[in-house]
Write a structure and sequence with these properties.
The complex is a heterodimer of chains A (243) and B (331).
Chain A lengths: L2 E12 L2 E12 L3 E5 L6 H9 L6 E6 L2 E2 L5 H7 L1 E3 L12 H9 L6 H15 L14 H14 L4 E5 L7 H16 L3 E5 L3 H7 L2 E6 L2 E6 L1 H6 L1 H8 L1 H6 L1
Chain B lengths: L1 H28 L3 H26 L8 H18 L3 H23 L5 H19 L10 E2 L17 H22 L2 H11 L1 H6 L4 H27 L1 E2 L1 H5 L1 H14 L6 H21 L5 H16 L5 H17 L1
Antiparallel strand pairs in B: 1-2
Helix pairs in contact in B: 1-6, 2-6, 2-9, 2-11, 2-12, 3-4, 3-9, 4-9, 6-9, 7-9, 11-12, 12-13
The chains are: A alpha/beta (243), B mainly alpha (331).
């Protein structure tokens, strides 16, 4: 399997703070990869680097066989990188359907086509009934869903999900999990940042654990959760020994 | 759902056509020159505000310096006419294109600024423009330019005996600005602008090139405002820096949109229809010598509106619609 996304020795420094140090990861086509780690591990920073919010201090990022290290976010979206935001960023004064149309317009300039695509995506994500509601009137779980819908409308090859399942009720989270599976079945590669281990682990094919800006462990979810290094990163050394 | 959207778009177009025809018939009943003048100014400010609304309402880049583009339209037209004998129609287009270019040249550094800093920059730049023209001898400096009027001529776009040609031009300009807005509203640009206004970061992540969309909005907006400036110069047959580039024009473009509903299709027209006649009437009946009272009156109106109806007067209509919608849904 060829890699869809690759980061090579990526560093990100904010002044004296090193958020990512020498991070090299691979995401293969069709995978669901979980990016996990305790708070402050550098997950969100790595996400922003991959999405193109800012260029890394050092290292390079490759997407679909192309060096995208210096490419701005909008252009990466055109190449097939879709993302959601940890803190939802809906277009609040626009309706749900209009929010999604903005995404669809990356692939077409014909409004009729963009609108059709947007309806299709709303159907897919289970938001069709809310199409004409203002985004500001959605409940939090729906707003998360709208973030996913908007990103899907850009027809991404890689979807970056930033804590879309965090803060949801167990039922909402289960529907979220089902949606992520559906997305993968549609042929889209998923890289997701998540906190809630018990939800992510059964979902992902592979997990990458970041700690203090570095890749700590990576592998099958079942192996990762048993790894003493991971346990100590999350819970402290004492627990790692007893495990 | 698609249908209701298309229906709404067609209904808007129909209402606009009916209103345009009704407005076109107005001179049949309004013979009073003073009232005609008010109608002309109302249509002109509706057009200007509609154009301002493209950059500041839809794209969310609040400009309080659009007087600059208004003045550029006026000066380009009259300088070309008085110095080189170029017909005002070409001057008008030239002024529009020049204003669009200047808007983009200014946008290049200033669209990197966000929020209040952008607004401040627009005010400062317009003031600099005003000062430059006040001191530019070739362009008449503070004395301005008097346009030689030699009788009625469509070719030179000047009329002494009747205000009607000006009225119909102002109406046409208003229709043009409205139609451009209507057309752009349901286009890639319209969606990009609203996305940029609501959340630039999210827009960027969805492939919207934020900087370019601001530049596009600025160019369209400045072009249309400059056409308005050229018209105003022809209408007055005399221009000086203060009377075509003064700060009050920036305000008078922004206020109707704010009053009627910023970033909406109908807001600027509705706002201008209320605000401009009121301004003119208060000025002539209460204003007298000072230029203050009219400003106080509509300042107060704006405060009231922003407190009671922050979305502008058009929200009254959509509220009624929303209520009907709810009723319909429960049935």
């Amino acid at each position: 399997m060829t890699a869809l996304l690759e980061t090579r020795g990526v560093w990100q420094r904010f002044g004296g703070l090193v958020a990512n140090s020498d991070v090299s990861i691979l995401v293969g086509r069709g995978e669901i990869v979980g990016l996990i780690g305790p708070n402050g591990a550098g997950k969100s920073t790595l996400f922003n680097l991959i999405a193109g919010v800012l260029p890394p201090t050092q290292g390079s990022i490759w997407f679909d066989g192309e060096d995208v290290t210096r490419m701005p976010a909008a252009e990466r979206c055109q190449r097939g990188v879709g993302r959601t935001f940890q803190v939802v960023k809906s277009f609040e004064t626009m309706t749900v359907i209009d929010n999604v149309i903005v995404g669809a317009l990356v692939r077409t300039t014909v409004m009729r086509e963009a609108r059709r695509k947007a309806h299709e995506v709303l159907e897919f994500t289970g938001l069709a009934a809310r199409a004409d509601v203002l985004a500001s009137d959605l409940v939090p779980a729906e707003k998360r869903r709208l973030e996913v819908a908007r990103a899907l409308a850009t027809e991404p090859k890689l979807l970056l999900l930033d804590e879309v399942l965090t803060g949801l009720t167990p039922t909402e989270a289960q529907t979220g999990v089902a949606l992520v599976r559906k997305v993968r079945d549609a042929g889209i590669t998923v890289l997701m940042v998540e906190h809630v281990m018990e939800i992510v682990m059964p979902l992902v094919d592979r997990a990458i654990v970041l700690d203090l800006g570095k890749v700590l462990v990576e592998g099958k979810p079942a192996d990762v959760v048993r790894d003493p290094k991971v346990i100590s990163a999350y819970l402290g050394d004492r627990h790692a020994v007893s495990a | 759902m698609d249908k209701s959207f298309a229906v709404r778009r067609r209904r808007d177009l129909l209402i606009a056509a009916v209103l345009a025809v009704l407005a076109g018939l107005a001179p049949l009943f309004v013979k009073d020159v003073y009232v005609q003048n008010i109608l002309i100014l109302t249509l002109m400010y509706a057009a200007l505000s509609q154009s301002w609304n493209i950059l500041s309402g839809y794209c969310g880049q609040i400009s309080l310096g659009h007087a600059l583009y208004f003045g550029i339209g006026a000066y380009t037209t009259e300088l070309l006419f008085t110095k080189f004998g170029v017909l005002p129609w070409f001057g008008m287009l030239g002024g529009g294109v020049l204003a669009a270019i200047i808007a983009m040249a200014l946008g290049y550094p200033f669209f990197r600024l966000r929020g209040h800093y952008f607004v401040i920059a627009t005010i400062v730049i317009a003031e600099i423009g005003l000062l430059l023209f006040q001191n530019w001898d070739w362009a008449g400096a503070a004395l301005g330019i008097t346009i030689p009027v030699r009788g009625d001529s469509w070719l030179k776009f000047q009329f002494m005996r009747s205000k009607l040609p000006y009225f119909y031009f102002a109406l046409a300009l208003c229709c043009l600005a409205w139609f451009v807005t209507w057309w752009l509203e349901d286009s890639k640009w319209g969606f990009w602008w609203r996305a940029v206004k609501d959340n630039p970061d999210a827009a960027e992540s969805l492939g919207v090139v934020v900087f370019n969309s601001k530049m596009g909005a600025a160019a369209v907006s400045a072009f249309l405002v400059a056409i308005g400036g050229a018209f105003y110069a022809q209408y007055l047959a005399y221009i000086d820096p203060e009377s075509v580039m003064g700060f009050q024009f920036s305000l008078l473009m922004a206020l109707p949109a704010v009053l009627g509903g910023i970033g909406t299709l109908w807001g600027p027209v509705l706002g201008a229809a209320i605000l401009i006649p009121m301004t003119e009437l208060t000025r002539s009946y209460i204003g007298g010598s000072g230029r203050g009272v009219d400003l106080i009156v509509y300042g107060a109106l704006i405060v009231l509106i922003s407190l009671a109806l922050p979305q502008g007067l058009v929200s009254l209509f959509s509220r009624a619609k929303a209520k009907n919608h709810v009723k319909g849904a429960t049935r």
